[in-house]
Specification:
The protein is mostly helical and about 600 residues long. It is built from 21 helices and no strands. It has helices spanning about 1-60, 70-85, 95-120, 130-135, 160-165, 180-195, 200-220, 225-230, 235-265, 270-300, 305-325, 335-365, 380-390, 395-400, 410-430, 440-455, 460-495, 515-535, 540-570, 585-590, 600-605.
Amino acid sequence: MVAILGSFDHRLSALETAMRPTQIRTHSIRRAHENIDKSLKAAEVILTQFDLTRKAEAKILRGPHEDLESYLEAIDQLRSNVNFFSSNKSFKSSDGVLNHANQLLAKAISKLEDEFRQLLTNYSKPVEPDRLFECLPNSLRPSSGSPRHQGDASGKSSSEHQNKSLEAAIYTVPTLIPPRVLPLLHDLSQQMVKAGHQQQLFRIYRDIRASVLEESLRKLGVERLSKDDVQKMQWEVLEAKIGNWIHYMRIAVKLLFAGEKKICDQILDGVDSLRDQCFAEVTVNSVAVLLSFGEAIAKSKRSPEKLFVLLDMYEIMRELHSEIELLFGSKACTEMREAAMNLTKRLAQTAQETFGDFEEAVEKDATKTAVLDGTVHPLTSYVINYVKFLFDYQSTLKQLFQEFDASDPEAQLASVTTRIMHALQNNLDGKSKQYKDSALTQLFLMNNIHYIVRSVRRSEAKDLLGDDWVQIHRRIVQQHANQYKRVSWAKILQCLTVQSGPGGDGGSSGLSRAMVKDRFKTFNVQFEELHQRQSQWTVPDSELRESLRLAVAEVLLPAYRSFLKRFGPMIENGKNPLKYIRYSPEDLDRMLNEFFEGKTWNEQKR
């Protein structure tokens, strides 16, 4: 059995040896088939790439005008074909195909640049002023075609109120390029970036959009003005231009620059460095023109009337600060951002220096304008109106003070206001010494201090200066009124005063008929002189005027009645009594009511 099995194994082994060449040939045949399949598949892939290249070429040769989306797809396909042949250079003629595809791609990108330029040019138009005005809140829209708004520098009734209304103001960023066109421009820009044409893209975008933006501002009225131009302008013209500039800054930052940022972000989305550079270069000239005017004003010769427009300009720069920081926040915009910040500080500094100049000018005002009737001096009304306007800018002033001093801004404002009032009073004291009549000196000071107190009480300055300040100055007004009364009427009252005592021709009165006649004559002359002179003087405040007349009447009329009752019979029983007793108490009262009316000599005669 073992022998049989051994014989069987031997024969089996011999059979396997005999079959091995046949197995090898079968494996070779299988491998050959597999290679043929691979070659066929590779050939199919290559043919497909050839076919895709041919189709892409056909679309590219037609150009992008007919079907831009299809054109962009063809470029992507061509770029994919180039990548394929670049990584499969073992194929015959792959180099030729590759060169052809690259040349075709270069032409395609060139046409793409032309299409991008054409599309951007066609849809980039300057924004007309009327369209921009429609994007503003109603409160800032011009009412009669003028670019100046109703709350500008010269006609500002209440900055605080205006600021509150601006907080809720809604600005509508204008559509600078139709929304349907933006995706196409974005796709075109992406293809140019992929082709390494960033600089060409940058130049095209910058040149087209920058010129359109500058033209929009020109149409609005923005002009480049140098410091010399500003210095030569009449104040009224310059004031109007400053009001316009404030409006232009709002429109530029909130509408035009915001609109440019929006389309730049959309068209160049995904290419951050290029996007930031493009926005910076598009806006740089326009920003420079706007800020240069502000710089020219800030560096121009200081004068008190410029303070309010400087505060307006500072106010708009503060208002726009957060938006400027946001729009120009990239590294590419650093210089513009810093230029805006520097202008804000320069305006604050110039405004503060102008404040100091004003205080000094009030103290040293040497105008010889004589106020002949003792009324409120033009300097007083000018300074008080100035201070009232300042209080329209309370929040702005407090912000301005904090630019240079960290202490309480309200205390600083109170201190400045007190110093201005003190400077005014010092100047008025000096001006009052011009009068030769000391009674008129007192009337002048009474009128002017009263005007100051009344104006403070009716304004927000009262809260800062405080009740104590008001009460002290009311007492000063009363002191001047008392001094006027004493200086003006003491002498005439002496005519009506009789010292009681023994002896003399007049018995206990001590007055003879001749002395009484003389007293009446002296009284008449003095009263007529006072009436003639002081009817030309003015107390413009009706309450103060009535109060002063009443104060005089309360002293004069009882004294006159008493003297007339006591000594009148001595004259009435003699010859020609009307020569001495010209006036009844009622006549005096009527004539006192003509005092301080500012009548001319001719009016009095009539």
